[in-house]
Design brief:
CATH topology of the largest domain: Immunoglobulin-like
Keywords: Cytoplasm, Golgi apparatus, Membrane, Protein transport, Transport
Organism: Ziziphus jujuba var. spinosa
GO cellular component, one term: Golgi apparatus
Structural class: mainly beta
Shape: elongated
Radius of gyration: 26 Å
Family: Belongs to the VPS26 family.
Distance between the termini: 57 Å
Number of strands: 22
Helix content: under 10%
Membrane topology: Peripheral membrane protein
CATH class of the largest domain: Mainly Beta
Largest sheet: 7 strands, mixed
Length: 299
């Protein structure tokens, strides 16, 4: 029985390390099994440098037909789980066919890597970056080892950032104007605004501002849209009167937002909306939704 178990053990230990792993910032990454691990953080155009260590078990020889490392950027749609779309694929050959008797270290380097999209773990999609080492073998399965890392990209302050002005109206019953100070917000920003009541002939019980994230994946008949309410902020409790104005001040930093992603590799988009909700005394809901752009500002 022990012999059978032993037959399925990998004949070597493979580990992948980054040259600046001790000094580089680490960020949490949620794995498929639900566990969270800390992995290195990179941005586009950086060098990814490190080494691969292969150590045969108990001095047994390891026959192989070549060793390679790949840097992969992949998108996986959950309705097509297991199929990865590679938008970045780089490879370095580490060793020619041969035999290993003792541990061996292989340095690797990928220079100024183009990583245009950010890592993302969504409801129906994930975008990931991995280093993948493959030890190819004849007659038996290849030995494969992965190492995840995360990519985040920064955006400069927008040169144009217009305010948002909108109206909500129900003929002869309600007329509200609201104004937000800008239309583009960074992840740690504050939404400032004002709501003006120009006509109030229905009894309003309360008013809320919601932040909503809308993730759309796929295309055509295979389009899936998932909307999450990330934050609810009560602006007013009780009835407003004509001429009254209500200030809005909503901090974004407590919420787990990502930047806005538009049509990433023709596979998915992530958009954010401010949703103003009014509830009258008969629990009827009136709302007005406005898209905002969210971006990552270098701190």
């Amino acid at each position: 029985m022990n012999f059978i178990v032993g037959a399925f053990k990998p004949p070597c230990i493979v580990s992948i390390s980054f040259a600046d792993g001790r000094t580089r910032k680490q960020v949490p990454l949620k794995k498929e099994n639900g566990h969270t691990v800390m992995v290195p953080l990179f941005q586009s155009q950086e060098n990814i440098v490190g080494e691969v260590l292969i150590e045969p078990i108990h001095g047994k020889k390891l026959e192989h037909t070549g060793v390679k490392i790949e840097l992969l950027g992949q998108i996986e749609l959950y309705f097509d789980r297991g199929n990865f779309y590679d938008f970045t694929s780089l490879v370095r050959e580490l060793d020619v066919p041969g035999e290993l008797y003792e541990k061996k270290t292989y340095p690797f380097e990928f220079s100024t890597v183009e990583m245009p999209y950010e890592s993302y773990n969504g409801v129906n999609v994930r975008l990931r970056y991995i280093l993948k080492v493959t030890i190819s073998r004849n007659y038996v399965s290849n030995i494969v080892e992965h190492q995840d890392f995360v990519v985040q990209n920064y955006t400069p302050l927008p040169s144009i950032n217009n305010s948002i002005k909108m109206e909500v109206g129900i003929e002869d019953c309600l007329h509200i104007e609201f104004e937000y100070n800008k239309s583009k917000y960074h992840l740690k920003d504050v939404i400032l605004g004002k709501i003006y009541f120009l006509l109030v002939r229905i009894k309003i019980k309360n008013m809320e501002l919601e932040i909503r994230r809308r993730e759309s994946t796929g295309s055509g008949p295979n389009t899936y849209v998932e909307t999450e309410t990330l934050a609810k902020f009560e602006l007013m409790d009780g009835g407003p009167v004509r001429g009254e104005s209500i200030p809005v001040r909503l901090f974004l930093s407590p919420y787990e937002l990502t930047p806005t992603y538009r049509n990433i590799n023709n596979k998915f988009s992530v958009k954010y909306y401010l949703n103003l909700v009014l509830v009258d005394e008969e629990d009827r809901r009136y709302f007005k939704q406005q898209e905002i752009t969210v971006y990552r500002l270098e701190t």
